[in-house]
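hey can u check if this looks right to u? its 252 residues, i copy pasted from the old doc so theres a chance i mangled smth
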Amino acid sequence: MEALVERKTFLKILIATLLFSTEALAQSSSVNLPGMAINFGNGTNLVDTLQVLVLFTVLTMAPAILILCTCFTRIIVVLSFMRQAIGTQSMPPNQVLIGFALFLSIFVMQPTGLDIYNNAITPYVEKKITTTVALTRMEGSLRGFMSKQVRKTDIGLFYDVTGRKAPDTIKDVPTHFLIPAFIISELKTAFQIGFLLYIPFLILDMVVASVLMAMGMMMLPPVVVSMPFKLLLFVLVDGWQLVTGSILRSFN
C-alpha cells in the first residue's frame, strides 16, 4: 500500500511539473520579439529599384572612371617617367605623386565637372530629372572631354577589329569604342612626353660616364656620380614647374 501511495504521489508531481512547464512555455512564446518583414511587390516600383541598382553600380565603378576616363592616366604616367628619369626610385613617394596627379586632374577636369554638376547632379538632387537622364548627361560631358583628346586612328583600330563601318562624326562612336581608344591615346601621349623628359638626363649620364672612363675611374658607377648633377639640373631649371606646365598645356 505504501508503495502504491508513493507511485501515485510521484505521478501527481510529474503531471503538475509538466502542466507548469507547458504554461510557462506558452507564456514565453507570447512575448513579442523584434523581427523583420520583407515584402516583395508591395508599394515598390520595380523600375525605381532597377534605377537605384544602376546608380550603385556606377558608384562602384567610380575609381575606374576616375582613372581611365579622365586626364589622370596621362598625368600619373608622366610623373612616374619623371621620377625614373631623375633616378630617384622612391622620391617623391607614390602617395605624393598620386595626390599631385589627383589635384592636377581636378584642375584640368574642372570645366567638365562643373558641366556635370550643373546639368546632371543638381537637377537630379532637385528631382527634376530621372536617374537615366542624369547618367546620360554625365556620359555626354565625359564624352565631350574624351572626344577632344582621342585620336582618330585609335578609334579606327576598334572598327577594323570588329569589321564595322566607321561613322562620319565622333558623336556617333559608341562609348565602349571611345573609352579604350581614349586610353590608348592617353598612354601614347604620356610616353611621348616621357621620352622627351628622358633625353636631357640620358645625355648627362653619358657625359658623366665618358668623364669617368677618361679619368680611369672604371669601378665607380656613373649613376652614383650623375645623381647629384641630375638633381642640381632639375632644380636650376625649375623642373617641376616645367613638367607641370607641359602636362597642363598638352590638354589644350
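The chain has a mean pLDDT of 76.
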